[in-house]
Write a structure and sequence with these properties.
Chain lengths: 330, 292
Amino acid sequence: MSTPPTASALLDRPAWPAKRLAIWGAIALVLALLPAAITNGYYLTLATNVAITMILTLSLNFTIGRIGLFSLAHSAFLGIGAYLTAILAQRHGVSPWLTLPVAIAGSCTAAAIIGVPVLRLRGMFLSVATLAFGLFAEVFARQASDVTGGAYGITGIPPLVLFGIPLRGTGMYLVALTVLLLTALILENIRLSRFGRAIAASRDNEPAAAAAGIDIARTRLAGFILSAGFAATAGWVYAFFHLTLNPYVLSLDITFVWLFIVLVGGLGSMRGTAAATVLLGIGPELLGFASTQQVLISGILVLVVVLLAPRGIGGLIEDMEHRIKGTTHG
Amino acid sequence: MEFLPLILLSGLQVGCVYAMMALSYFVIINATGILNFAQGEWMMLSAVFGAALITAQLPYPLAVLCAIGGATLVSLLAERLVIRPLQGRNADINTLVVALLGILVVVRYSTGLIFGREEVRLDGPLPAEPMILGDSLFILPQTLFVFGATATVFAGLWLFLHRTTFGRSFRIAAIDPLGAQIVGVDLGRVRFAAFAIGGLIAAILAWLYGPLYAAGYLMGEAPGVKGFIALIIGGLVSPLGALTGGLLLGLFEVATAYYIGSLYSEGIAFVMLMLFLFVRPQGLIASRWRLG
């Protein structure tokens, strides 16, 4: 740290050091080989569910922690993606792979339409307006039986096929894992990119960001639409993993659980969010709690975290790192 | 047109429910700046608790009083145990939102766990037989009770805010928290009282809405969201905004259900919210609150 960074070093995106590449590669390899170690189908299902949930929590962490938008419409974007996928693949015989761009485009369009008025709101008002959209999406899926199959939903979705082999079990786990790793990679790259720094600047200091030539409204909207795209991709994986779909996927309470995971993990911390997703995704199941109690447990946990450890797991990890390196933060 | 009186009656009835919900948000937001997401859950608690007490053979008036008191008490507990510590250490608004959602989820699901997940009937205070007024016109006693109770609660709150010293300190706290403290308003006391009154209104609402629907642990969700939408439509500046927004939303929903289809009636609330955010974000009754 003897020479000050040059101007070009500040403007260029930081390179990916070899160490970081190695860590990511190792994580990907271990997770990809996981099915070889897991012989029990139940645990494989659990792992796939955790992977799908993590796509959602990582993108929600991006929306809330990085952009600073307290959006509760994530279940709606997941649902739009999943329902578009299911309807196209099951009723209209569209190739499963072709449904992915449609699902993403559908969710992103919805995000763009509601984003324009809703992103003008602040704090709690934004939360409730997005909550209202989530409720609307859930009620629509329940009631518009002609389109969505109503409360029974859509069954008999054809599986994804790769090289003539239908993907189930281990195959779908690997698909979910691939999407998850791509999501994490893209989000991490965005964090380091010009766009990512514009987002962070808009969140931290609006007047300064605007003075630096950042179009705050447009930057936020772009981030919001992007995160809806990730949610839609998670919905696409969800539809082909479960091969059935019902309005439960749109339940607002599930959105709350994702939100709690992000908070327990520590706002803005990708590592913390990932750790909390695994913890809350696997913990209650292994302890033998029913899935409805999982919602209750996550609620209690988030109250404890908010009151006692406001920076979440991510904050604890950082504190530990600083202690190991012998430095202090702040 | 022959169904117009019925549409008006049932629209106003639904509207009263939304208006009461909006009013319970209004009391808290005006005095503390907090939009308490969990308001719908106090209503749910009061209804579920009351239904259980009635099943346990408690005399009806006593069951109603205990249920309303119990739900209000939980609202105060939430303020004391969660909101106050958070505001005490100047937590940001996001932390508060999460804490409120945490309270909502914990209350909702522990109620489901303790009282069961089935929806049960909740008896209204008046007999259930409809009163025939004309060829195709009838009215339920419960509807009259909804109108009467809503009018009473709104009038009572207006008198409290405008005619009592403590009520006036609520309004001062809303206009200028710092100035209020200088002239001797205890903001902590105001916040506590706001949660008490907000919780009380929601708990009373259970006995308007519950008998029309049913008592169950998920019943707070939809009225909770719609009450907020009603408040945005009406404006956040006075109880009149809550009333106007609630009645308007109720009338629009019922009219949409009748003339276009029940599927669209659920969407109308969201469409109206979007329209107002676009065209008149300050609400019908102009507001000094800045939303964006």
